[in-house]
Amino acid sequence: MSSGIWSEKSNMPGLIDRMLELAVSIQQIPAPTFEEVQRSLFVKGLFEQEGLRDVSMDSLRNVYGRLPGGGVGDPLVVSAHLDTIFPPEVSLEVKREPDRILGPGIGDNALGLAALFGLVWFLRERKVTLAGDLWLVANVGEEGLGNLRGMRAVVDRFAEHVLAYLVIEGLALGYIQSRALGVHRFRISAHTTGGHSWSDYGQPSAVHEISRLVTQLLTLDLPEEPRTTLNVGRIAGGTSVNAIASEAWCELDLRSESPPALASLIQEVEHLVETASRPDIFVLAETIGQRPAGQLPADHPLVELAENCLSAQGIEPKLTIGSTDANIPLSLGLPAIVLGITSGAGAHTTGEYIHIEPVRLGMEQLVLFVCNAWKTYEPVR
Predict the structure, then answer these.
(1) For the whole model, what pTM was predicted?
(2) Does any domain span residue 242?
């Protein structure tokens, strides 16, 4: 596949530098899940400065902007999530090195958001008019207990009246996520009368009961194929070291490549919770998140286009599975994939970093994909 639109790259280094500076500016705005409003307003203002059409913000703080195309066919929706996993008190200090930029959330997903603007800049630099309209979306609620609420609203807005959904992540250049990993999340709580650690010794402790239940959960036999996982991500309870805890809880994340395997694991967990309750202790499992599964076949034109765009940059494409905003359209049978912009490591840690040099290849891949998206049902030459 030819990358002919890049035959002249005179201003490409300058645009990459500009995009990286924007990524840092975005990264410096705290945006924990459910608290994305300041970052939403920042992106909305930039959409307006860029002269995008129909710029708006919905009730969830998703931000929309349209780059008009030639009016052929349905629009392409390109999205990147606004939120991070980091609470406001986490330092967002950035460290720059010759070959990388370090900072919490710089790759996941400040760079992905900056790529929305980079896409506009590169298209204008090359004087490219797309066949159809390009909708750019910065959405909330991708991380943690956001439960993909932002993307659910995006898909409700556009439904099937799109060419495809393209989700941008700052990291994982070279990987094409065309399969959506099913996820189910529980908050399991235990409730007892509680009491004094000495005078009421022998009364059941909610902390002990939750701990016992977690131990049982870890003995469940999980299949290696299809890959299925169980993780207790948070646990808390009690009021004092010398009190028998009256309340305790844990948060449980279940995942599987196979919907039937996930459903079976959910049933096992619910059974353990049900049998944990006794007359003097009440144990409850509450669903706090669901990410539906779905997939595109490996020979789908959208997947083949993404593979060709990576190959054109000398990168061997790898198909993968993950839990991202693409879960929502894929679960509804709508064409969607996830592409990354660069390499790096440490996502979801304060040691997160991105490599600078591969950003050029990531943007070439992205622009080439968008320019050819309306040809996905024809042979790409």
Answers:
(1) 0.92
(2) yes
